[in-house]
Automatic annotation (TrEMBL):
Transmembrane segments: none annotated. One of its GO terms (molecular function) is hydrolase activity. Coiled coil: none annotated. Gene3D superfamilies: 3.60.21.10. Residues 7-215 form the Calcineurin-like phosphoesterase domain. PANTHER family: METALLOPHOSPHOESTERASE, CALCINEURIN SUPERFAMILY, SERINE_THREONINE-PROTEIN PHOSPHATASE CPPED1. It comes from Falsiruegeria litorea R37. This is Cyclic 3',5'-adenosine monophosphate phosphodiesterase.
C-alpha cells in the first residue's frame, strides 16, 4: 500500500437548520441533519486531515428565509472543530439556485451572494498545500449572466495557470451520467458546462469533486476524474429509482447505508478516495471515531453478475424534475469495491463489446480496478482488437471449456496470447446433467469450474497442452473451502503453476435461497484469513451483489440498494 503525501477530507450537504427549528422542509429526516452534521464534523476532525473542504449546502434554509442567518450561525458552531483549515464551497441552499426556468427555489442574486459572504467568506477561493492547489468555485453563477460570472472565469484562468497539481471543487456536478447530457436540476447548463470543461482540460485539472445530488457518481473526461460525493444529512429520494429493490425509509430519503465523509489520499502519482460511513448516526457513541487507514486488500475476485454499468432514465416526478428526464446510473458498486479492498472483478468478455459497458470498464480501470473476463467461444477479430486496446484493464482471461476435449480451448488460448500478455485461465461449464442420479429430484443448473475430485486428471490434461493455462476449480457451499483450497495450493505448487477456485455462496438447488448471513460472514472471513497460506490460488467469490429473486438466490457483498451486506461490511474492517 502506497503511503500518501498527505490526506485531505471532503464532506457535503449537511443541510443544517436553525437550532430552534424552521419551516424550510416538510421531511422528517431533515430534523436529523444537525445531529448528523455534528457526527460528521467530529469524524473528520478525528482523521486530522491536512485540510477540509465542505462542498456546499452547509445549511438548508435559503438566503431569503428568516431562518437562514441562525442556521448559518449553527453551522459555524458545528464546524468549529475543523477550523482553521476548513474551506467552504457555496451550495444552492447557501447562495441560491443556478438560473433555470423550472428551478424549485430562487436563483442566485447579488443580495444572496452578499448574505453568503457575510457568513462563510468569499464565493470563490483557492488554497495551496504541498505541491497541490485547491480551487473552490461558485457553481450557481455559471450561466447566470451576472458580472461575477465573468470575474470568476477570469480568476480561474489565473489560479489554474500553475505548475502545481490542481483539484477543483464545485457544488453542482458538471454532469452525472454523460458529458453531453441535457440540462436538468442536477447539472450545469450546456453552455456553462462546455466552457468550464474547456478550462479544466486546458489546465490539466486532476480531479473535480462535487456534491448536490446526495449520491455517489464517478466519471472521467480525458485525464480528469469527476466525483459526486454522498451527503451526511439525507439521500435524495428521486435517485431511489436507480436501485433494484424497494426504497429505504421516507421513500428513499433516509438510506442509512449511503451517509458519510470522504478522505482523499494524495499520492505521488495520483490520488485515491476512501469513504468513511456514518450510517446516519446522530451520536458519536455509535460511530468509530478512530483514525481510518486504507482498507486491507481482501484478495477476493467477486462475480459481477448484475449489469453494474447500466444507466437508466429516471421518472420526471415533480419537486426537482417536472419537465426533463434525468439519466443516471448506480455507481455504488465502485465505491463499495474501494471500501472492501477489492482490486479485481469477474465479468463476461462481452462487457468489452458494448459501448456503455466498455466505457465503464475503462473508467473503473482508471481508478486501479482490473477485470478477470471470461468467454465460452472464440473471440472475433473485432473483439480481439478490443482486448488488445484494453489489455491494461485486464487481470486475466478465462476460457470456459464447453466441449469434452481441450482442442477448442487451445485454439482460443493461442488467439488470446497473440493480443494480450495476461494470465490465461481455463474452467468448465459444469451442469446438473453431470450429476443426475436416478430416483433423486432433477434441477436444471449450470455453474463454473472443474470438479475438485478430478483435479489430478485436469492438471495432467492442461499440462499436456503445453500452454500456460491456469485451471479454475469449483467448491460448493459448506464444502470445506479451506481444505480444498489448501489441496489445490499443494497441487499447484507441486507443478509450479497457479490457478483459481470459484467459491459458491449458492446452495445445491436453484430453488433454495442462502440468506444465512452469519455463516456467510464467517466463511468470507475464513477465505481472507487463509489468503497468505494459499498464494497460488486466486479466490473468486460468487457473488458480489445479492440475488434476492430468480434462480439460486443468495446474499452477496452488497445488497440490491448498493449498500454493504454484513459480509461486505466485514471486509471493510482492519485485518492483520
Amino acid at each position: 500500500m502506497t503511503d500518501p503525501l498527505f490526506t485531505f477530507a471532503v464532506f457535503t450537504d449537511t443541510h443544517i437548520r436553525a437550532p430552534e427549528g424552521d419551516l424550510s422542509s416538510p421531511y422528517a429526516v431533515n430534523n436529523k441533519a444537525n445531529a448528523r452534521a455534528e457526527v460528521a464534523a467530529a469524524l473528520v476532525a478525528a482523521q486530522e486531515p491536512a485540510l477540509t473542504i465542505h462542498l456546499g449546502d452547509m445549511v438548508h434554509p435559503l438566503p431569503h428565509m428568516s431562518a437562514y442567518e441562525p442556521a448559518c450561525q449553527e453551522a459555524r458552531r458545528v464546524f468549529a472543530c475543523l477550523e482553521p483549515n476548513l474551506h467552504f464551497v457555496p451550495g444552492n441552499h447557501d447562495i441560491g439556485d443556478k438560473p433555470h426556468d423550472a428551478s424549485p427555489a430562487g436563483a442566485v442574486t447579488p443580495e444572496a451572494v452578499t448574505a453568503y459572504s457575510g457568513q462563510f467568506g468569499e464565493q470563490w477561493s483557492c488554497v495551496d498545500h504541498g505541491d497541490c492547489r485547491f480551487v473552490l468555485i461558485n457553481s450557481s453563477i455559471v450561466g447566470s449572466g451576472l458580472e461575477t460570472e465573468q470575474e470568476q472565469f477570469d480568476w480561474l484562468e489565473e489560479v489554474l495557470a500553475t505548475d502545481k497539481r490542481t483539484f477543483l471543487f464545485s457544488h453542482y456536478p458538471l454532469f452525472i451520467d454523460a458529458v453531453d447530457e441535457d440540462e436538468h436540476y442536477d447539472n450545469y447548463g450546456l453552455e456553462g458546462r462546455a466552457r468550464l470543461l474547456e478550462v479544466i482540460k486546458r489546465h490539466g485539472v486532476e480531479a473535480v469533486l462535487s456534491g448536490h445530488v446526495h449520491q455517489f457518481f464517478f466519471n472521467r473526461v480525458g485525464e480528469t476524474k469527476f466525483y459526486c460525493l454522498p451527503a451526511t444529512s439525507f439521500t435524495r429520494q428521486d435517485f431511489a429509482e436507480l436501485y433494484n429493490a424497494g426504497p429505504e425509509a421516507e421513500f428513499g430519503r433516509n438510506d442509512r447505508g449511503k451517509f458519510g465523509i470522504m478522505l482523499v489520499d494524495v499520492l505521488a502519482d495520483g490520488h485515491r478516495l476512501r469513504f468513511v460511513p456514518t450510517g446516519g448516526a446522530e451520536s458519536d457513541a455509535v460511530v468509530d471515531m478512530s483514525q481510518r487507514k486504507p482498507p486491507a486488500k481482501s484478495g477476493l475476485v467477486p462475480f459481477m453478475r448484475h449489469a453494474w454499468y447500466q444507466s437508466r432514465d429516471l421518472p420526471y416526478t415533480g419537486a426537482m424534475e417536472e419537465f426533463s428526464r434525468k439519466r443516471a446510473r448506480n455507481d455504488y458498486p465502485l465505491l463499495r469495491l474501494w471500501q472492501m479492498g477489492i482490486e479485481t472483478v469477474r465479468t463476461p468478455l462481452a462487457d468489452l463489446a458494448r459501448p456503455e459497458s466498455l466505457r465503464r470498464v475503462q473508467d473503473f480501470a482508471a481508478t486501479g480496478l482490473r477485470f478477470h473476463m471470461f468467454t465460452t467461444s472464440m473471440p472475433n477479430d473485432a473483439m480481439l482488437a478490443l482486448i488488445a486496446e484494453n489489455r491494461d484493464a485486464l487481470a486475466g482471461l478465462e476460457i470456459v471449456q464447453v466441449e469434452p476435449d481441450l482442442v477448442r480451448v487451445k485454439e482460443i488460448a493461442k488467439a488470446l496470447m497473440k493480443v494480450a500478455n495476461v494470465p490465461l485461465y481455463v474452467s468448465r461449464a459444469a451442469t446438473s446433467a453431470d450429476n443426475a442420479v436416478e430416483g433423486q429430484i432433477y434441477a436444471h443448473n449450470v455453474w463454473t469450474g472443474y470438479r475438485y475430485a478430478r483435479r489430478a486428471e485436469i492438471l495432467d490434461a492442461l499440462a499436456d497442452t503445453g500452454l500456460p493455462l491456469r485451471p479454475v476449480f469449483a467448491v460448493g457451499w459448506r464444502a470445506d473451502w479451506l481444505g480444498k483450497i489448501g489441496g489445490l495450493q499443494d497441487a499447484f505448487e507441486h507443478r509450479g503453476i497457479e490457478g483459481a477456485v470459484a467459491v459458491q455462496l449458492m446452495t445445491g438447488s436453484p430453488a433454495t435461497a442462502n440468506f444465512d448471513d452469519d455463516y456467510i460472514v464467517e466463511s468470507v472471513a475464513e477465505l481472507v484469513r487463509g489468503r497468505t497460506r494459499h498464494p497460488r490460488v486466486t479466490v473468486m467469490l460468487d457473488t458480489f451483489e445479492t440475488l434476492d429473486r430468480g434462480y439460486n438466490p443468495r446474499h452477496g457483498l452488497i445488497d440490491r440498494l448498493g449498500n454493504l451486506t454484513p459480509a461486505g461490511r466485514s471486509l471493510t474492517l482492519s485485518r492483520d
